[in-house]
Specification:
alpha+beta; elongated; 4-stranded antiparallel β-sheet; 23% strand; Type 4 fimbrial biogenesis protein PilX N-terminal domain-containing protein; 187 residues; 3 helices; PilX_N_dom
Length: 187
Amino acid sequence: MKQQGLVMVFALLVLLSITVLGVSAVTSSLSQSKMAVSMQQSGLAFDAAEAAIAGVFFESEDETLLTDPNKTDPLSEARQGNVFDPEADSMSCFDDGEWTDRYMTEGGLAVGDRHVVDGTYQSEASSKSWSRTAFIREQACRGSSNVIGGSNVNCHVFIIRGCGKVAGKSSVVANSLAASVFGPASQ
């Protein structure tokens, strides 16, 4: 009789250990699934931020937009605004300060258009994409002053921050880029 009770206790212990292993496997699987979804959403937000930066360059190189006296590109608008000091100022994706904003929407980029209307970047993942552009300084262009006209041309330095956000997530993914553009020297 004692042996039958011992077998039953042993069977219960084996059953308990299998249950603990099963619960642990399910918990680990759910955790890994949540991490994969989070990484996918972060990747979508990063893609949106990169697209926002690309949109600034698209508009800044758009001949139709550049030759229309009634429209300005984001770099020209930023150049006309306040100077951004990277040591003292911050450029947040949420700051509604004096930055030049551009949005990327499902409609994409169109030649001759200023992309200033907020909208959904991607409806499948319901994400937003926008950029902030600010002028930093004007400086002598390194190594090219003899070739491009001496003191009549300077490099205008900008910072461009692309921002991307997936709906339902509290965080925003941002990427920043410094750009230098040849322009007439200020007098």
